[in-house]
Specification:
Chains A, B: This is PLP-dependent aminotransferase family protein. Chains A, B: Its cofactor is pyridoxal 5'-phosphate. Two copies of one chain form a homodimer. Chain A is of the alpha/beta class. Chain A has 15 helices and 17 strands. In chain A, the strands form four sheets. In chain A, strands 3-10-9-8-7-4-5-6 form an eight-stranded mixed sheet, with helices on both faces. In chain A, helix 2 packs across helix 11, helix 5 packs across helix 10 and helix 12 packs parallel to helix 15. The interface between A and B is large, with 116 and 116 residues. Strand 1 of chain A pairs parallel with strand 11 of chain B.
Chain lengths: 441, 441
């Protein structure tokens, strides 16, 4: 079609086919699905949402957090004009609370230089700016685990960036698959730039990497010149001691680390961060950091992370003595105990003989929100709708997180928003649905 | 260079030349410059920043705003669980406060359907998602006024989108230049998709469009199938009665309207919005709205606008009776009066004969933050540094906002952060600098 002469529809009418291609990718519905499915079936028990337990939230807390941060600023000698400017005016693009976040990360096992931090609107903006910096053109490839968090593949899609999947095994990205993918990508004349991975209690699979697998991954990628984008929002939500992050093991600046306070404090402030200590060599011979470049990109996305929301989070961190490990131990224990309960209920509901006959299986996360359950039927949106309407239980199709049809018979279950009774009843309803689907086929 | 075999630098070292091209575009430094230049010369009088007057800010206000919103939610029958979920949990992608914003916009002269709104992290995210939706590939062109707000050209650069400038005259985009550009763009086989314009007290030029120019612009673009992206954060910051927005004049859904509470309430919440009532026709024959598509894109950028920040803004709006016109009348009066003062000082400091001899001139905004001053020398960063260091006054080179070297001898002055004495002293210092530069050349 000659786009220059054929008259389109009237000005206020647009063809979806002529808007950006990402809008025709079902990927973009996944985030909305995750955000909103639970509201569509308010009476169902929901294993769907990846959101933290909210019954302990208190609307007075942000007020106390803000007061704590203001008191802290006063204690550091800030006058009232500086304080109101810090909270209410535009602020530095890289963030107002980098020092507070750096000290907290150090206490929780990840020493970082505040200058290597950018405070972002959730981990999502951190992912977006990291991919935008690293993926310069259509020769550049982002490797992602398969299945992958939809936020990383969605951000890449928005940027028209190439994504190649690498199968995830029980210990993280499969080294053989990774080596093969790297070779394939290079043989196609493309440049693998980074691998995105969630090493602790992965969304969506629940997989965690052993420390040796983490070291092996860094060793494998280092000579390839391929960075690791470590997306790690769940690391403190399992039993202590917490394994070292990929970034904590990194001696060669090969890891860009992304985190969030959405699961350790609360999501409503939408505060995330990225640690990017990579050295950037400019054409004039000078050097800077990747964090600096990420902040420059951020200036064209959100200008600043809301300074008021940053202040609330900084106050919350100060009130926890700049240590989230001890502060989240109770929540971590709660999630781990619900995960154990769900696994024991599944074991009870699907005895070994049934498991074998039906082809039902699951993995064994020690914490976090997610567990992957394999079922004997295609677990897509139709199955989900029937399960919600007839059995009163919700979950997420794993296929939403895969590059192809892998995961077609796997569902993601999240225990994060449920109590013990709901886990027990939900597992019973789910088992009834699985048996019913099996009998229908 | 064969990127597949040549070894690059070690993993933790990156070449700027191999990161995204936007990072080599000086455009990206402009936002950082605007954000941070004032901090670099703390003792200079600064006509540089585009930020609102902050001396009236009060750190207790967000606490009162939050309480007002909580009281409002309770009054509507929300229970405590719903309230804490609304403030502290993840929320709907399009926003939690669309109804409150829609009612406020209606009271201030712009009736909109809440379903056509998306609440964003400042106007910047609204610009980014609007451009991402409309600019599908490298055949699509965004037209921008020349000079243009750096946030719109920067967002386009991040998306590798094509931008063509349209000269701005004293009454907004020059109709002749616009017609010529449209023809040129189409002759090159490209598709003009939208024109971005700031119709009230434009950043950077200070220009406002007359009502007849607004109607003419809509009439000119309608048959072309080219949308208007109306970026209008300053409209209430001038003398009442405020002229109708382009969106208020729009009877054909040809305008996407973007606004912000950064200048009418305070920037630190970073709450903006986009009104997009365009009909989107899907391949299956169903229809939706552009607002819905924008929310889908937003889900991959920031997931949600911080619900806590939205709650603060909603409370602030309720405390102002959902009317920003009366609430900002005092601030608008203050800005208008400073603008009048600056113009009269310039008139005093540059008598007509001097003006003619030196080639000094300026325009005449009735409100807003910005005025454009033409000077007889190249007004780039070197001139700015000398002016700051030797004369103690800051401003912004207008060349940062132009597609080419136009604006090389123009500077942007903002009165928004100054008091009357600073405007008077700042104008005197600036005049001394202009005369000194003229004598040196």
């Amino acid at each position: 079609m000659d786009r220059t002469t054929v008259a389109g529809p009237p000005a206020g009418h647009l063809e979806l086919a002529q808007l950006h291609g990402s809008l025709r990718d079902p990927l973009l519905d996944t985030m909305t699905f995750l955000n909103e499915v639970t509201a569509r079936y308010p009476r169902a028990i929901s294993f769907a949402p990846g959101r933290p337990y909210e019954d302990d939230f208190d609307v007075e807390e942000p007020v106390r957090d803000l007061a704590a941060y203001v008191a802290h600023l006063r204690g550091e000698g800030a006058d009232e004009a500086e304080i109101r400017r810090t909270l209410l005016q535009y602020g530095p693009t890289a963030g107002t609370i980098r020092e507070v976040v750096a000290r907290t990360l150090a206490h929780d096992g990840l020493p970082v230089d505040p200058d290597h931090l950018v405070i972002t609107v959730g981990a999502q903006e951190a992912l977006l700016i990291t991919l935008r910096a690293l993926l310069a053109d259509d020769h550049d490839v982002l490797l992602v685990t398969d299945p992958a968090y939809v936020g990383v593949t969605g951000a890449a899609r928005l940027l028209d960036a190439r994504v190649h999947p690498v199968a995830e095994g029980p210990d993280g990205p499969d080294p053989h698959a990774l080596t093969t993918t790297l070779r394939d990508v290079r043989e196609r004349g493309l440049r693998p730039r980074a691998l995105s991975v969630v090493p602790d209690f992965a969304n969506p699979s629940g997989t965690s990497m052993s420390v040796s697998a983490r070291r092996r991954l860094l060793d494998l990628l280092r000579p390839e010149g391929v960075l690791v984008v470590e997306d790690n929002p769940y690391r403190l939500l399992g039993p202590a001691p917490h394994p070292p992050t990929l970034k904590a093991l990194d001696r060669h600046r090969q890891v860009v680390h992304i985190g969030s306070f959405a699961k350790t404090l609360f999501p409503g402030a939408r505060i995330g961060y990225v640690v990017a200590d990579q050295v950037v060599h400019r054409p004039d011979g000078t050097t800077g950091t990747l964090a600096h470049e990420l902040a420059r990109l951020k200036s064209m996305i959100t200008v600043n992370t809301p300074p008021l929301a940053q202040a609330v989070v900084a106050g919350a961190l100060h009130r926890r003595d700049l240590r989230l490990g001890p502060a989240t131990a109770g929540a971590a224990q709660r999630y781990a105990s619900l995960m154990t309960l769900l696994r024991s209920e599944l074991t009870r509901l699907f005895p070994p003989a049934d498991r074998e006959r039906l082809g039902v299986s699951w993995n064994d996360p020690a914490g976090g929100f997610f567990i992957a359950l394999t079922v004997p039927f295609p677990a897509g949106p139709e199955a989900l709708a029937r399960c919600a309407e007839e059995f009163g239980v919700l979950w997420t199709p794993m296929r939403y997180f895969h590059a192809d049809t892998a995961g077609d018979r796997v569902i993601r279950l999240s225990i994060s928003c449920l109590d013990r009774d709901q886990v027990i009843t939900g597992a019973e309803r789910l088992a009834a649905f699985v048996r019913d689907e099996d009998e229908r086929s």
